[in-house]
Design a protein that fits this description.
The chain has helices at 2-20, 48-55, 72-80, 93-104, 135-142, 160-165, 188-203, and strands at residues 22-26, 37-41, 60-65, 84-86, 108-111, 145-152, 168-173. By secondary structure, the protein is of the alpha/beta class. A seven-stranded mixed sheet has the order 1-7-6-2-5-3-4, with helices on both faces. Strand 3 (60-65), helix 3 and strand 4 form a beta-alpha-beta unit.
Length: 206
Amino acid sequence: MVWLLYHFFRSLFAVAFRVLLRTRITGRERVPRRGPLLLMSNHISFADPPLLAVCSPRQVNFMAMVELFRHPVLAQLVRAVGSFPIDRSRVDHTAAREAIRRLRAGRCVAVFPEGGIRLAERSVLGGNPQLKPGAETIALLADAAILPVIIRGSRKPYVGRNWLRRETMSVTFGFPFCLWKPAHASSKNDYRQLVRDQLLKTVELT
């Protein structure tokens, strides 16, 4: 049932994005097709999760903000497509364990390590991101590869005239890497810095 609902809504968004805007995808061939994979993406709008789902060749399980699960109908819908909640106001061990469980089952899980929508200088696109702790630990404990992703232009659907102009959004997949084999990382801060560096390198590919 989750698979059917996920692909139903994914198809709806794919049609909407194709009709209203243009979507440029770079590096799709770099997405590992099997095995545990943690997508780490920047976050600039509420359109990012469906856009990422449309562009990814794999079904994506999203770690979604807990606020979405406080509305009964919306909560059922979000869970039905395979997402699970995270409380961004604290270190959410329950969400981390669920992410690790899904990754160990060989799934693809997406997180937004900035901890919410970020647009200013202290964002990935701004060049000085301040990443929340935890995502790197999830990858380590799950023995999962990390794939950095950069999204641009996903705020354009907010403005009606962009639909007429068919403005372009873009999703760039970087190069997958593994935290359990870095040559120089020896602490959680080192791991987080490595993730930060890889996200910024992926910005250069856009």
